[in-house]
Amino acid sequence: MWLFLAFLAVPLIEIALFIQVGGAIGLFPTLAIVIVTAILGTYLVRAQGFAALAGLRQSFSQLSDPSEHLAHGAMILFAGALLLTPGFFTDAVGFALLTPPIRLALINYTKTRVKVQGFQSMGDGNSMHFRAQSAKDDVVDGDYVDIDVDMDVDIEGESGKKPTHRPSGWTKH
Length: 173
Hints:
173 residues; three-stranded antiparallel sheet
């Protein structure tokens, strides 16, 4: 129900703000503000997105919990969508989400609402295993293993066999 109200309220707020601002400063200055905020928002989203990606890479390399960096990245992505949407209300919310203190406050609020019992990460250089334990016992595990293309091992693990097909071109040779 709240999503329906948001889809109803946001366009109405935007239309009312366009009428008020357009009546106060005119059509062309209003359109210029919308275009400038989209360009400025794109620049800021790109810069902060790269910073969030660097933090995510650092958390992966240190085998630490990446959830805060992922949350920052998701909020930056959402802010970018809001800033590209024409309107003053969506721009205000988008610019607010681009400020790190507001994102951090939202993350801390979300942390009080979500209960995670533990986070484990183990890696030996070739494989990595992450496990997050939640209060609901709906644990999702994920593993990966780097496979060398030049190995003499097929999928079933029998050594000495060569592949019977050429590489697809989608992977490195």
